[in-house]
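Hi again,

Forgot to attach this to my earlier email, sorry! This is the prediction with nicotinamide-adenine-dinucleotide bound. I've pasted everything inline since the attachment limit keeps bouncing my files.
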Amino acid sequence: MKIDSAVTLNNGVHIPQLGLGVYMADEGAETEYAVRAALDVGYRHIDTAKAYKNETSVGKAIRESNIPREKIFVTTKLWNPALRAGNEEEEFYGSLRSLGLDYIDLYLIHWPVREGYVRAWSVMEKLYGKGLIRSIGLSNFNPHHLDTLEQTATVTPAVNQIELHPLLTQDEVCAYFRSKNIAIEAWSPLGRGALLANPTIVRIAGEIGRTPAQVLLRWHLQRGHIVIPKSVRRERITENAALFDFALNDRQMNEISALNRNERFGPDPDNFNF
Ligand code: NAD
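Structure tokens for the complex follow:
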């Protein structure tokens, strides 16, 4: 495995298993710098969203990189108000314009807004059919949301991007989506940074001479998760990609998995109000 090693999605599209997340990175110099640093280091996958308000900077850094467009995998997400207003198509074209790209590699429904996600999916299927999106997927979906979607969907979602880290391993959710051939993508893979001081993680990092962030991210990779750690600092972006010259053994993997306490840092997909 190496930095741009990919997972094959259910429609044959390849997604690099490691990407850079840019949630809470400011539009302008901060996001441009982070994306440029990641591309320099060898990342080929960037995860943004309409809601992050930095699509313009992500697109600018990608265009200015001189790396061929088809070598970079770009994810963005349809934000909740569009599902309530029913203007998903307009929102999609808005993201495309902000990014300054001709197509999106992966477009996700950001949250399962109850009154809107079934219709939103049909709009995304249409845009996918037109070739404007290479793969369409979900974020923050629980099994029952998928069951509802499946009643009318004609395209199987390619991924479900969910909060996932050792305190929230979501074993049943992962198994359910995988049984439908839907890949699992982990958001807040470092627990928003809070897991970096966890004593088990710190001890295992000491055992193998790696950093806590590397131990956490390697745990994700070995569990088959697509992973999108966020940083805007070049040294951390570099550190978070140095994951391919070591492995955790079974005992270390099991100890980390046993940290699960079903504890979220973010909102609950069955009870959110935004
Ligand atoms: P994360 O788990 O990636 O943690 C990020 C925090 O850890 C930052 O504060 C950063 O400074 C720190 N950090 C990163 N690398 C470090 C290192 N090597 N050493 C020390 N500290 C380090 O949290 P996140 O940003 O919430 O999640 C990652 C990405 O997932 C986001 O940027 C976004 O792209 C995506 N996301 C998606 C959703 C969703 O609803 N789909 C929600 C949240 C995040």
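The chain has a mean pLDDT of 98. The pocket of nicotinamide-adenine-dinucleotide is lined by residues 21-23, 47, 110, 139-140, 161, 187-193, 196, 213, 228-231, 236, 239-240, 266 (CB under 6 Å).

That should be everything now.

G.
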